[in-house]
């Protein structure tokens, strides 16, 4: 998994990043809430791991910002405080789980797997290969196929298809797709990328939900 790790304590942050990397995850460590809010919209993260006790802006502010702009990303909140009120505030702001420090690393890893699995499904934990109907997307190889045919997708088209396949059968809101796959305001709009992707898929896979977003139909037409 690609994890956005937000922690201001240098010693703990470095140790946590190394432990996450040793467990096979890609951990991008940020030391401020403002940097995290910017990076979250530019990056393509599977989980947000944020300390609620940040000095420059409250971790709850990062959490609320994430829920507004990236509503589907799972969030695990850490805290050095033991009071119940801080925990309840985090859940009210949209946290998926909450863990007080200190904690054993195996517990943190288990909780990360759990919040990712609830959002992305079992494939988020194992090999990141997604299959919907006759479409297959391999994240490690950066390849997508329809049946036996390799699809010549651009990086942006691949990212769009990845998000839609992860949530097959569910509507992915337009704003979320734009913030997660369009890294710059310059260049083609999302509609252009969707149109090009549809042509390359050459089939009725992506459906527009007018005024909301897009959905990758998980069942074949007529099934």
Question: Can you describe this structure in just a few lines?
Answer:
The protein has 223 residues and is an alpha/beta fold. The chain has 8 helices and 12 strands.
Structural commentary:
The structure is a single chain. The chain has helices at residues 10-22, 33-42, 59-69, 84-92, 105-120, 155-166, 174-181, 190-201; strands at 2-6, 26-30, 47-51, 75-79, 97-100, 129-132, 135-138, 143-146, 149-150, 172-173, 206-209, 213-216. Strands 2-1-3-4-5 form a 5-stranded parallel β-sheet, sandwiched between helices. Strands 6-7-8-9 form a 4-stranded antiparallel β-sheet, with helices on one face. The chain has a 3-stranded antiparallel β-sheet with strand order 10-12-11. The protein is built from 8 helices and 12 strands. The model has no long low-confidence stretch (mean pLDDT 84). It has 2 domains: 2-120, Rossmann fold, CATH 3.40.50.2300; 129-216, Arc Repressor Mutant, subunit A. It has 223 residues and is α/β, with parallel strands linked by helices. Helix 2 (33-42) packs parallel to helix 3 (59-69). Helix content is 41%, strand content 22%. The two termini are 33 Å apart.
What fold name stands as the CATH topology of the largest domain?
Answer: Rossmann fold
- What is the strand arrangement across the widest sheet? 2-1-3-4-5
Q: How many β-strand stretches?
A: 12
**Name given to the CATH homologous superfamily of the largest domain:** Response regulator
Q: Which outline best applies?
A: elongated
Q: Helix coverage percent of residues?
A: 40-55%
Q: How many structural domains can be distinguished in the coordinates?
A: 2
Ranges with pLDDT <50 over ≥5 residues? none
Q: What is the CATH domain class of the largest domain?
A: Alpha Beta
Mean pLDDT value? 84
CATH architecture assignment of the largest domain: 3-Layer(aba) Sandwich
| Proportion of strand residues | 15-25%
- Compute the separation of the termini in Å: 33 Å
Number of helices: 8
Order of helix and strand elements from N to C terminus: EHEHEHEHEHEEEEHEHHEE
């Amino acid at each position: 998994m690609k994890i956005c790790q937000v922690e201001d304590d240098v010693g703990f942050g470095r140790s946590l990043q190394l432990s996450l990397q040793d467990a096979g995850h890609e951990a991008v460590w940020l030391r401020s809430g403002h940097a995290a809010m910017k990076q979250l919209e530019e990056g393509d993260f599977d989980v947000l791991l944020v300390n609620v006790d940040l000095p420059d802006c409250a971790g709850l502010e990062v959490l609320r910002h994430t829920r507004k702009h990236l509503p589907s990303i799972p969030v695990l909140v850490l805290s050095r405080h033991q009071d119940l009120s801080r925990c309840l505030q985090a859940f009210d702001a949209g946290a998926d789980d909450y863990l007080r420090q200190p904690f054993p690393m195996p517990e943190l890893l288990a909780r990360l797997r759990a919040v990712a699995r609830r959002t992305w499904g079992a494939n988020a934990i194992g090999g990141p290969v997604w299959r919907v109907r006759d479409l297959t997307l391999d994240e490690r190889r950066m390849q997508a196929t329809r049946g036996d045919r390799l699809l010549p997708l651009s990086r942006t088209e691949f990212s769009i298809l990845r998000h839609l396949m992860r949530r097959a059968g569910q509507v992915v809101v337009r704003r979320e797709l734009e913030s997660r796959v369009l890294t710059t305001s310059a260049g083609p709009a999302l509609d252009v990328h969707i149109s090009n992707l549809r042509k390359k898929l050459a089939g009725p896979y992506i459906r527009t939900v007018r005024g909301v977003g897009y959905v990758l139909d998980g069942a074949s037409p007529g099934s």
